[in-house]
Design a protein that fits this description.
It is built from three helices and no strands. It is mainly α. Belongs to the bacterial ribosomal protein bS20 family. Residues 12-23 have a biased composition (Basic residues).
Length: 93
């Protein structure tokens, strides 16, 4: 347990930040899974594109806000783009 007031404050801050990070990362994972699920189900192309756009926006926002490193976000976006492009060409993953 923390022995100093400043250490106690850091514990409180880290708990809040950890909870906030978990919420954002869970939402990001949900959006990515949605895109992958739609591709697996061979859904409408427009539906996949909309889900893809939402996922990309979330990844960009997380990188800007610091919840995710920009290179990590870029890597995830690249992988998603490859999947969506393959799907749109007709070679469903």
């Amino acid at each position: 347990m923390p022995q100093h007031k400043s250490a106690e404050k850091r514990v409180r801050q880290s708990k809040r930040r950890n909870a906030r990070n978990r919420v954002h990362k869970a939402e990001m994972k949900k959006l990515v899974k949605t895109v992958k699920g739609l591709i697996e189900k061979s859904a409408e192309k427009e539906e996949v594109e909309n889900a893809y756009r939402a996922a990309i926006q979330k990844l960009d926002r997380m990188a800007v806000k610091g919840y995710l490193h920009k290179n990590n976000a870029s890597n995830k976006k690249s992988k998603l783009s490859k999947l969506v492009n393959r799907f749109s060409k007709g070679d469903a993953a």
